[in-house]
Amino acid sequence: MSGSTQHWTASRGRALRGTIRVPGDKSVSHRAVMLGALAEGTTRITGFLEGEDTRATARVFEQLGVRIETPSASERIVHGVGLHGLRPSASALDCGNAGTGMRLLAGVLAGQRFDSTLVGDASLSKRPMRRVIDPLSRMGARIDATGDGVPPLHVHGGQPLHGIEYTLPVASAQVKSALLLAGLYAKGTTRVREPHPTRDYTERMLQAFGWPIRFGPGEAELEGGHVLRATDVAVPADFSSAAFFLVAASVIPGSRLTLERVGMNPRRTGLLAALRLMGADIREENAGEQGGEPVADLRVSYAPLHGAVVPESLVPDMIDEFPALFVAAACATGTTTVSGAAELRVKESDRIATMAAGLRSLGVAIEETPDGAIILGGPLEGGRVDSHGDHRIAMSFAIAAQVAQAPVRIDDVANVATSFPGFVELASGVGFGLEPG
Ligand SMILES: O=C(O)C1=C[C@@H](OP(=O)(O)O)[C@@H](O)[C@H](O)C1
Ligand SMILES: C=C(OP(=O)(O)O)C(=O)O
């Protein structure tokens, strides 16, 4: 799916205006399919993200014997098979580009009676898996990876699991979730602690599916041996997709944009706090709830930004938003400092290096550090940047191009479909200058 041949030409458009709804939340969509598949009964998912990542997860469960219907776009009916009803797949399970898919599946598959092999695309095949293999092994799982601890993963079935107490060395909702999902199959209590609280969708959704679980910021614990009961899931709009428009409207003079019904889980909205520190004008309206998650309409208006020191405490709450934040920093007056974000180096690309290279080629002064960057805002030139197949990098440079002095060619953009299908159309519709090819 990594289409190095695909590129965009992005250039100054007009002030962004309008009201839009971005696609469904990726984290919630992955988990809704997983828990729906393992539940007793039928789960209806609405607002499902029609992205390559989440479709890959649905396909994997179909390979494992789960019937999933698509009555309409963004809707899925998952016919749950119960905790012990999955069937072995003769072929490898392809998670595509999705770290979330693979790491959470490792937890689910560790509890099965049969063996499975998890594979991914070129980018996923470079991402670290020891972070799930090590703690799952302590629970009794047997998982083989390549020598470097990267995919493919061979997950051995028939291994009795037992609960453990585990403190994560890095803040990762994926690792936490893998352990909790394995914990469904484990004897005794699985208790996970985090160095900084991360998104708690797995915990919230397990509770919604009727599994007894105790959790609070930075900790979660559950016992094996219960039952998941199907429940409908209404997926809110993805804050991480909304983020591109929050930054774009903040930096393009004259913009005024409303993003409807955006998921506002506090473990996701760190970018709001960071942008406000930089002087952004973003208002929350019509606060409500959807599928057990807080949602709000976000009204963002252009405002001149100034540099800031991004507090390290915000990092886990905006982990996927740094590429967009780097663009905001490049458009701001003065210096922005990011630290405590070494995890960015093991995402779909090394996001610190990829953003630094791209911004430099647009004339921005940026200094990389091991765990962040120091970015000096200033005028952006046109040029050519390489996304390295990373969806969030591609979309971030589409924003940068809106304020650049000449067009920007953005290479290797096909993976935008992993998290944000329809981005080009939606962005062009509100004023972006953005064209495929
Ligand atoms: O649990 C999840 O759904 C996710 C957790 C984060 O990854 P880490 O757990 O590696 O920080 C995030 O980057 C990813 O996009 C989605
Ligand atoms: C890091 C991301 O996703 P994943 O880890 O699921 O590939 C992301 O979407 O930015």
TrEMBL record:
**CDD domains assigned:** EPSP_synthase (cd01556)
Q: What is one process in the GO biological process aspect for this record?
A: amino acid biosynthetic process
Keyword Nuclease among UniProt keywords: no
User: What keywords are annotated for this sequence in UniProt?
Assistant: Amino-acid biosynthesis, Aromatic amino acid biosynthesis, Cytoplasm, Transferase
Q: Where does phosphoenolpyruvate bind?
A: 26, 99, 127, 174, 351, 392
Q: Name the residues annotated as catalytic in the UniProt entry.
A: 320 (proton acceptor)
Annotated ranges, domain Enolpyruvate transferase: 13-425
Per the record, what are the reactions this protein catalyses? 3-phosphoshikimate + phosphoenolpyruvate = 5-O-(1-carboxyvinyl)-3-phosphoshikimate + phosphate
**A Gene Ontology term for the protein's cellular component:** cytoplasm
The record's InterPro entries line, in alphabetical order, gives:
Enolpyruvate_Tfrase_dom, Enolpyruvate_Tfrase_sf, EPSP_synthase, EPSP_synthase_CS, RNA3'P_cycl/enolpyr_Trfase_a/b
Query: Where's it mainly located?
Result: cytoplasm
Per the UniProt record, which EC number(s) apply here?
Answer: 2.5.1.19
Spell out the subcellular localization from the entry: Cytoplasm
Q: Name one GO molecular function term.
A: 3-phosphoshikimate 1-carboxyvinyltransferase activity
Instruction: Kindly tell me the pathway this chain contributes to.
Output: Metabolic intermediate biosynthesis; chorismate biosynthesis; chorismate from D-erythrose 4-phosphate and phosphoenolpyruvate: step 6/7
Instruction: List positions binding 3-phosphoshikimate.
Output: 26-27, 31, 172, 174, 320, 347
Q: What does this protein do?
A: Catalyzes the transfer of the enolpyruvyl moiety of phosphoenolpyruvate (PEP) to the 5-hydroxyl of shikimate-3-phosphate (S3P) to produce enolpyruvyl shikimate-3-phosphate and inorganic phosphate.
Instruction: Identify its protein family.
Output: Belongs to the EPSP synthase family.
What's the subunit arrangement here?
Monomer.
Q: What is the protein's name according to its record? A: 3-phosphoshikimate 1-carboxyvinyltransferase
Q: Which organism is it from?
A: Lysobacter daejeonensis GH1-9
The uppermost taxa in this organism's lineage are: Bacteria, Pseudomonadati, Pseudomonadota, Gammaproteobacteria, Lysobacterales
